[in-house]
């Protein structure tokens, strides 16, 4: 696998882990509070969001990079 493609794949998994962990934690806490089953609810939300989020990050990160470059008048 080409190093740049490998980097992008690993980046997608790491960004997904960080972003989705934080967001599902916050949204679960807002919706149910720190109920006794909080960790189970958070875990379920994380698994679903991670399965959806990592492919979204993988395919949309290059689009976001190009769009940001155009908005700022810089090469992507």
List the helices and strands and how they pair.
Elements lengths: L2 H30 L5 H35 L4
Keywords summarizing the entry:
76 residues; mainly alpha
Short description:
With 76 residues, the chain is mainly alpha-helical. Helices cover 86% and strands 0% of the residues. 5% of the residues are buried.
Provide structural commentary:
- The chain is an all-alpha fold and 76 residues long.
- The protein has a domain at 38-76.
- Helix content is 86%, strand content 0%.
- It has 2 helices and no strands.
- The chain has helices at 3-32, 38-72.
- The longest helix is centred in the C-terminal third of the chain and has 35 residues, at 38-72.
- The chain is elongated, with a radius of gyration of 16 Å.
- The mean pLDDT is 94.
Detail the poorly predicted runs. Answer: none
Q: From the alpha carbons, calculate the radius of gyration and give it in angstroms.
A: 16 Å
Secondary structure: helix percent: over 70%
Taking all residues together, what is the mean pLDDT? 94
What structural class do you assign from the helix and strand content?
mainly alpha
Strand content: under 5%
**Element-level helix/strand string:** HH
Number of strands: 0
Overall geometry = elongated
Q: What is the rounded distance between the termini? A: 22 Å
């Amino acid at each position: 696998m080409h190093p740049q493609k490998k980097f992008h794949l690993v980046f997608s998994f790491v960004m997904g882990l960080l972003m989705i962990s934080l967001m599902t934690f916050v949204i679960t806490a807002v919706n149910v509070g720190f109920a006794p089953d909080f960790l189970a609810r958070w875990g379920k939300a994380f698994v679903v969001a991670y399965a959806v989020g990592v492919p979204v990050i993988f395919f949309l990160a290059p689009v976001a990079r190009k769009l940001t470059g155009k908005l700022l008048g810089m090469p992507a």
